[in-house]
Amino acid sequence: MPLVTRNIEPRHLCRQTLPSVPSELECVTNITLANVIRQLGSLSKSAEDIFGELFTQANTFASRVSILVERVDRLQVKVTQLDPKEEEVSLQGINSRKAFKSSTTQDQKLFDRDSLPVPVLETYRTCNTPPPLNILSPYRDDGKEALKFYTDPSYFFDLWKEKMLQDTKDIMKEKRKHRKEKKENPNRGNVNPRKIKTRKEEWEKLKMGQEFVESKDKHGPAGYPSNMVYQNGSIGSSESMDGSCYPPPPQTDSIVPPPPSFPDDSLPPPPLEFR
Fold first, then answer.
1. What whole-number distance in Å separates Cα of residue 237 and Cα of residue 229?
2. 3-state secondary structure at position 97
């Protein structure tokens, strides 16, 4: 439901009961002109209120900007006077300093009765008072105020308060749950996290060639086995080498082709000393 801040009165210029006059047309003309003048007066009053609010807001904004400019100037002077080459600050000195705390005051009571605009306050004063339903409150069995069933200004505040209390209960419940899990599993936080693979490690593996990547992964992240000779000229030993570095031995049950047989006639004659 929109709230009308300013009303221009009168709304209807000619809707009025005519008195008993000899010239009705002249009477209607005079009434219309008078209502137009009243509308212009109401419009000028609303314009005065609008420009007054703009003037107040502009003054508040200007005062805040001037305060901010002064703070920036003081900070600029401090920064220009600070020379990191001459003034050395140790890590212990940084940790011993107190944390920064702002001294600015926050705006409060923004929606108070005193902060209402003048047109809204005038509209509020022209409203009718609620019916005296509080007379019936002593006769209720539930102890509630009878007037709150007709109008309850604190309804939205109570609704917000219930939501905030429920959120606080949920947060405390979650904290108790985490605290209980931490007591049941005390070594939960000491688990070694999984090492994150980076692109730099991948390029380090590929630096010596694609054929060494698989061998390096098999021997662990520390690199190749020590004292082992590779094709790139590095020195290594075969003590820590496993069978994966050598080609697999031939299987025993594989079929080996027999050597070619030659007929006796094709052989050369034996030497004379063996005859």
1. 7
2. coil
